[in-house]
Amino acid sequence: MKRHLVTRGTAILLALCCAVTAGAWGPRVQLSVVDTALNLISREENLPLTRLKADARAGAEISPIVMEKLFPDMTTDPMRAIDTEMALLTAARGARIDAYFAWRLGALGKLVSRVTAPMATADPLVRNQYYDDAEKAVDAGTLKPKPREAVKTIADLERIALEANSGNDLISGEYQAGTGFRGTAVTRLGIDISRSVNAVADVWWTIITSQTVPGNISERQLQDYVVSAYEYYVERGNEAEIDAADANYRKLTTYSADMSARIGDLLYAAGMRERAVKEYEAAVAAAPERRDIVEKIGNYHAERAEESLEKGLLE
What value does the CA radius of gyration of the chain take, rounded to a whole number of Å? Predict the structure, then answer.
């Protein structure tokens, strides 16, 4: 009996890997899960997330392409992708929770909501119909919050995923019998959505309140996180946000020459050339042999000279 349960549990977890990309909770349910989790954790734990609600929501609405870029292991091993992101965000948390951090929390919440959705092992046609029906009935379920629990290991989420899929056969049978969403599916909807909400809130709570910094996050991962944050803020075009982020991130990791050059490229492309050149100069100071970066500085001065000449400011 025990062996049968282990085998069945493994099959569900393997099927879950495929379900994450094939489809899980629909976008409306996913956003509702993230929104509710944010309100829940802000109210219960007095954590400063409400002011960053728009950023967390934006993270929960990212496209599949952006999602796969953030979580490279999402297709083959979604649990590992969640585990890695939790460790990275814990290490990158710093003294303040900023807009980019909230955006990443929202994206992670989207992934957690997907792996804790029911019907991962169901027939694809039934599963997709169920998710379509759940999209229309998302407001029908009653939320059942529970006290926050730390996610100690990824096995905690695997257990939740197995629990979420425990009623798949019953729901599938009712769909095939013509009952559809009028039976067990709608009766369980509040419980199933609450499970995802509580899982997202627990994951966030674990990240934000953890007193230990994971040792398995490399300097390169932190540097990539910081560069991605600059990309996020540069795209928003708010230089005050960039200033605040810069002051925060320089305490987080050492800026390598390559990292400063990448940040410089982002700033230059956005028209913030003076800021970009400062990054290029910092990169050259750290790596004088980088002739490619020296050339970028030279190109900047050449452009400035041409612009001044066109305006009649140079002879």
Answer: 24
